[in-house]
Write the structure tokens for this entry.
Amino acid sequence: MIWLAILLLTTVALAPLARVLLHSGPSRRGRREAALALHQAQLTELDRDFAEGQIAAAEHTAAVVEIQRRLLATAELRDVILPSAARGPLVFALAMVPAFALGLYLRAGSPGLPSEPLAARIALAKSELEHENASLADLRAHLATLDPHTEQARKGFELLGNMEAGRHNFAAAAAAWNKALAVRFDPTLAAEAAEAMADAEGHVTASTALLFRKALQAAPIDESWRPIAERRLHEYAAGEEGQDAMPATGN
């Protein structure tokens, strides 16, 4: 079935080029004939505009002279017709394109590999999700047995935050990272926690802005995430200014 699909797609892709190369009938209009028809149409339009009073006589005369000059130049045109001898190499190259693609696929692809059913892929994804949930539950249970103020607990909370962030559960990730920061402050982790808080809330809150500021104060001047944190603080400041600019309402 896959070979039929490949053949069909190849035919559709190369058919227009093959038609151009192989077609050589007398019905084809050349460059000279097309240019003459265009210029004749322009003359007709000029005469109509002049008759309707849309252009002045001087403008009409100048335009006619210009078109006549183009007509003389068109007479020098010669249709370029590709001789049969020159079309041969192009036709050969056209035939080699699918042959080369087929050889590349046979070398790098896996045409004999059976397709994986959708049900199997769904079952695999479900199994991976269940395994991930079990790992999270085990980690949380282990953290519950530790003193939350120890370095071991800090590493566990950081790992928990990474796992939650990988699941796009930004609120849980921020909560875990903040517990790790309570043990020992790290500016990079603080910036990640603040970003997760902003993602979870949909905007930068006062507590998020405070954490961004603490991270910036403790981080080296060349830290790579500084522009992101500064942009978030700018968003917060702009939002605060917008709130201050709103007129007070009352009875």
Remarks:
- The radius of gyration is 36 Å.
- Confidence is low (pLDDT under 50) at residues 25-29.
- Residues 30-108 form one domain.
- Residues 118-144 form the longest helix (27 residues).
